[in-house]
Every structure is written in C-alpha cells, then in structure tokens.
Amino acid sequence: MPGRVMTNPAHDPELVPPGTRCVILTGRYSYRGSDRLDITRQGCDRLRAAGNPCPGEVLAPSHAILWPAKRALEKATTDEARGLIFAAYRASYISELRDRYRRREKEFRALLEAPYQTLVCFCVDERCCHRVPAAEALAKIGGPAAYYFGECEPRPSGEPMRVVCVR
Ligand SMILES: [Zn+2]
C-alpha cells in the first residue's frame, strides 16, 4: 500500500485475509506513518484546541474514566492491583465505546474507509492500553472488511508485562 512503511515483516499485506478493506494496527505514540491515528484524550484535546481535525477522538477515553483510573494506578503497589484496575478501566472504556457507537456510528465507519489505520497511544505496553480494545471494537464494526493485525512494532521478546499507564 502506498504511504505505509511496514516495520514488521509479519505485516506483509499478503497475510491479510482476502476481502479486507481496512487493516487496523496499533502502535506507540512515536509511530509516524501516514496512517497514524491519535486516540489519546490529551492528543485529541490538543488537536481540537489547535483547530485541527481529530478523527481518532471517537476512540479516545473520556476524562471521566481516564483520570480516576490513572490516579488509582499511581497509588497501586502490586502488579496484581494494577491488573485489576486496568481490567475495570478496560470494561468502562468498552462500555463507553458501545454507548458512543449508538450516537456516532458515522464517525466509526469513516475510520474504516482508509486502507490502514494505526491507532497510537503513549503506553509502552499495548497489553495494558486502550488501543487494543479500540482496535478490536473497530474491527468488529467493520466485519469481514476490517482486520486487526496487531501491534505495528513488536515488543522486544521476553519483555515482562508492565501495567504502568493508562492514557
Ligand atoms: Zn494507552
């Protein structure tokens, strides 16, 4: 596909199921490909304040669920506690997306018009980031025409699970 740099050999377009019209990936905030979609609350608020379009805002968590989760994570002292906080945050986020989809379906569908969307967030580890449930939700909305491929740059192998941030 033009305009996209494949950073992971696993992301060979040949491996995408036939009939796919939108390949969804997730990545870190530093990702600079032309298909980068900022889905962070801070990033979208900044874009909007500067008068720029922010199509990823429909996938950004609300302030109402983001800050309590962040404060709770900062206070948590064990990985188990952080895991539980993230699980609860993830559930609130998914329920927020469902509610938003009912009111803003067109914005979700518009994202699926692009051949690639790489959803980015500040979190280092995608396993404790809203970008994965966001990608999964988008893929579900797109049905067989959409496919979530995974993280666009692989983690170094053996990197331990770290629940350190929610943004
Ligand atoms: Zn994140």
Description:
The relative contact order is 0.26. The chain has about 170 residues and is α/β, with parallel strands linked by helices. The two termini are about 30 Å apart. It has one domain. The protein has a four-stranded parallel β-sheet, covered by helices on one side. The chain has helices at about 40-50, 65-75, 80-110, 130-140, and strands at about 20-30, 35-40, 115-120, 145-150. The radius of gyration is 16 Å and the shape is globular. It binds zinc ion. The site of zinc ion (ZN) has 7 residues, from loops.
Structural features:
167 residues; alpha/beta; 4 helices; 13% strand; disordered C terminus; binds zinc ion
Number of separate helices: 4
The small-molecule ligands in this entry are:
zinc ion
Q: Main sheet: which strands, in order across?
A: 2-3-1-4
Q: Write down the Rg.
A: 16 Å
Quick gist of this model?
The chain is of the alpha/beta class.
Secondary structure elements and their pairing?
Blueprint: E1 22-28, E2 36-38, H1 41-49, H2 63-75, H3 79-111, E3 116-121, H4 131-142, E4 146-151
Parallel strand pairs: 1-3, 1-4, 2-3
The structure holds zinc ion.
